[in-house]
Fold this protein.
Amino acid sequence: MGKVIAITGKGGTGKTAVTAMLIRHLNNSEKKFRILAIDADPDANLADALGAKVEKTVGDMREFMQDSRFTSSPDTDKQALFEAKIFEILLEEDGYDLLVMGKPEGSGCYCYVNNLLRAIMDKTAKDYDLIVIDSPAGLEHFSRKIFPDLDDLIVVTDESRRGLTTGERIRDIAREMGLKYKDLYVVVNKITTGRRDKVIENATSLGLTVIGTIPYDESLAKFDLVGDPLTGLPDDSPAVKEMANVVGKLGL
């Protein structure tokens, strides 16, 4: 299995934007990776940020697999059926494949969808050099062991001291849960000019390692405002330039 990077943080901090810019940078890199991008947030936004059009999700697959118990013949090869559905929902884009969790259409909890996502990961993860996961807020997906052991857990926060303490709490909860990862890093998003040093100081006092301080970027804000994919950001965008530093610190 390749390197596994999960990006998490409180809602509204910009973790999906950071995920999209990371994939954008890797796609434009001279190094060529086989990338699997996973949008594990039921409120799926990663596809829009990447400019991809998703028609089928894991949630849709759940409905099909549930229905197939009653509609398929007894001699149907369920494993072959499952693998065929994976190829239906796995979106092949230029430079990466995308898997979107989505929402189940029927009633009930996400347990079955989570189990499907885990099974798909077990089946496909070995085919990629790099797996990038846009995680929902919180650590529920990790506690349920849906994802394989992580190489890097990236917490996206704002520049406030309170935002950074979220990173501290996620680190402590991850340890309590026995979540396996090699490194935990912080990326501070929408940082104000002149505040970087203080943010780094605050993070250090909490025992956190900051690998990126993404400045407020007017071009990124305009893209978000009209819903344009972040893959179209110009190379001279301050956020894009800082993402290059993040990628370097991740050793990619």
In short: Strands lie at 3-8, 35-39, 91-93, 96-100, 130-134, 150-157, 181-191, 210-215.
